[in-house]
Amino acid sequence: MRRIIKPEFDLIPADGWLRKVYNVIYLDNTRQGKIFDISLLILILISVGLLMVETIPLVNLKYHNLFYTAEFIITMIFTVEYILRIACIKDKKEYIFSPIGIIDFLSIIPFYLSLFFPIIHYIGILRMLRMLRIFRIFNLADYMHDGRYILTALNHSSRKIYIFLLFMVIFIVIIGSMMYLIEGGKNGFTSIPQSIYWAVVTITTVGYGDISPATPIGKFLSIIVMLCGYSIIAVPTGIVTSEFRKGKRYHFMCGRCGNDDNDNDARYCKQCGEKFA
């Protein structure tokens, strides 16, 4: 059954100072709201930029204290914002456990965890999730429901994709084993797993070049694998594209009877007559 998450404009609080805070944080139709969104966007970009620069050893060693102070201040601001988002809405649980609420929480919690458990400092990479908040700032979340067409297409083509992947696994194992025998355990093909790695890299047309055959038969087999790779790439694309085109006739699965063969603009289920929300 489809779980419906209330949009933010349905979480309006009662009158008072909370309503003013709500208008600034959640809405962008006022001057204060626009300034807040722009400020939030700047903080997100600064935070992500700092996280990237911190991974440069020499720069981090020289400006570590500065980076830490900046991240501390930014995290405090995001923490206050997160608390205010919860405080100024009626249905607090709906926001906290919504995808947006979870992202907001995960973007600040790594900093606090690193204070008590320094060994998990690298979990701070979750701060990159702050970039997803740009969807809210630019009001892109309202368009995310269109992604259901992609999910529906993937769901209906899943069986074909599984069969295709199974065939690919078998094909790659066979090719890798053959190359191991042909090269005689030399030229980088020191084992069957190593040869399978070469087969995966070759058939996906990545071609790192760290392993390559030296025998004439091995080179001939490589040509076949590379040509197969170009043709194989089109298979999953065609499967999903076909279902994606047909996906326009699908709607959300009916929560009452489970029927998903409804027109995109249907207001009632074809099978049981259930009204769509």
What can you see in these coordinates?
With 277 residues, the protein is mainly α. 61% of the residues lie in helices and 0% in strands. It has eleven helices and no strands. It has helices spanning 17-26, 31-54, 57-87, 92-96, 99-106, 109-116, 134-137, 148-156, 158-183, 192-203, 216-246.
Averaged pLDDT, please? 79
| Largest sheet composition | none
SS element count, helices: 11
Rounded to an integer in angstroms, the radius of gyration calculated over CA atoms is 26 Å
Question: Which segments are poorly predicted (pLDDT under 50) over 5 or more consecutive residues?
Answer: 1-6
Q: What is the helix content?
A: 55-70%
- Strand percentage lies at under 5%
Morphology: flat
Quickly give the structural class. Answer: mainly alpha
Question: What are the secondary-structure elements, in order, as H or E?
Answer: HHHHHHHHHHH
Rounded to the nearest angstrom, the distance between the terminal CA atoms is 12 Å
Q: How many β strands by DSSP?
A: 0
What is the topological layout?
Elements: H1 17-26, H2 31-54, H3 57-87, H4 92-96, H5 99-106, H6 109-116, H7 134-137, H8 148-156, H9 158-183, H10 192-203, H11 216-246
Helix pairs in contact: 1-2, 1-3, 2-3, 8-11, 9-10, 9-11
Features:
mainly alpha, disordered N terminus
Give a short summary of the structure.
The protein is mainly alpha-helical and 277 residues long. Helices cover 61% and strands 0% of the residues.
